[in-house]
Design goal:
By secondary structure, the protein is of the alpha/beta class. 37% of the residues lie in helices and 26% in strands. The strands form four sheets. Strands 2, 4, 5, 6, 7 and 8 form a six-stranded mixed beta sheet that branches. Strands 11-10-12 form a three-stranded antiparallel beta sheet, covered by helices on one side. The longest helix has 23 residues.
């Protein structure tokens, strides 16, 4: 990976931001790697020497890393900070680092720290649910202790006390309860993801086409239809179908604005490999 410094940040800042604090220990896959799309992982490995990342884009992730370090250093009785657990599945070692474990009546409570923007708290949190339930499975498998609670402690980086949107966080840090899976569902998920990654590795090694990323993995935003009126800045209402939007537009003597859907992860190159992805590049060529 090539690190750029387009804003000419001072050398000490660059050195700090580019320092790699992360380790997954002696494991082939971490929990977050299992959750990531197999296609992205293989393309990142293949084109690692060509991928360019500007140091400014590392600010957000390193802020979370710094805060984790501060929290890890604070030892309090009844709590375990930043413990990495390992287990083996089909000959492969999987690990996960759990931010916080708390001794509760009847078992263990797991808390994961998230340093996010407000919209992350307001959106569907399926990734958070998956991650914490695999941690739950790890604790119950490795430590043989029952997990009785899963929570996210979300620190809101862009919190505004004047925001009144529905579902907006109540404070700069909020606790979010996460639904719990049974052990069978969690292990089934782990095994299926492991198989997907191993199949992707084999396909890549033999020069075969990689399994396409799903709409969910590509952060798909569906096309919507906004009913608007001249002189009004905001939409009167937004619909999922053109028929509903047209009907209201006629009543309101307005017009319909089509807001085209997109695969946000691809268009924003949040995967880092969009320019080498035949799936995304093929779609661009088709629409050209």
């Amino acid at each position: 990976m090539k690190i750029t410094n387009k804003q000419n940040l001072p050398a000490p800042v660059v050195a700090l931001l580019t320092r790699n604090f992360y380790t997954k220990g002696k494991s082939q896959y971490s929990v977050t790697e299992l959750m990531s799309p197999p296609k992205i992982r293989r393309l990142r490995e293949q084109f690692d020497d060509q991928i360019e990342v500007d140091v400014t884009s590392m600010l957000a992730s390193q802020f979370g890393t710094f805060m984790h370090g501060k929290l890890e250093a604070k030892e309090i009785a009844g709590f375990i900070n930043e413990e990495r657990l390992f287990t083996e599945v089909n000959g492969m070692t999987i690990s996960g680092q759990i931010d916080l474990q708390e001794e509760l009546d009847g078992g263990i409570g797991i808390t994961d720290y998230k340093f996010v923007k407000a919209w992350s708290v307001m959106m569907n949190k399926s990734d958070w649910e998956t991650q914490l339930n695999v941690y739950k499975w790890l604790v119950e498998t490795v430590k043989h202790k029952k997990v009785v609670r899963l929570q996210v402690c979300a620190f809101i980086k862009d919190y505004s006390k004047f925001e009144t949107k529905e579902g907006y966080p109540e404070a700069e840090a909020v606790m979010i309860d996460i639904p719990m899976w049974d052990s069978v569902k969690a292990e089934t998920y782990v095994r299926s993801r492991l198989e997907m990654h191993q199949n992707a590795k084999m396909a890549h090694d033999f020069g075969e086409e990689l399994q396409p990323c799903t709409d969910e993995e590509r952060w798909a935003k569906e096309t919507t239809y906004a009913v608007k009126r001249e002189g009004r800045k905001t939409a009167i209402r937004v619909f999922k179908t053109i028929e509903e939007a047209t009907e209201l537009a006629e009543k309101e003597k307005g017009y319909v604005e089509t807001r085209a859907g997109e695969y946000t992860r691809c268009t924003g190159n949040y995967c880092g490999v969009a320019e080498w992805c035949e799936q995304y590049q093929g779609e661009l060529n088709e629409s050209a």
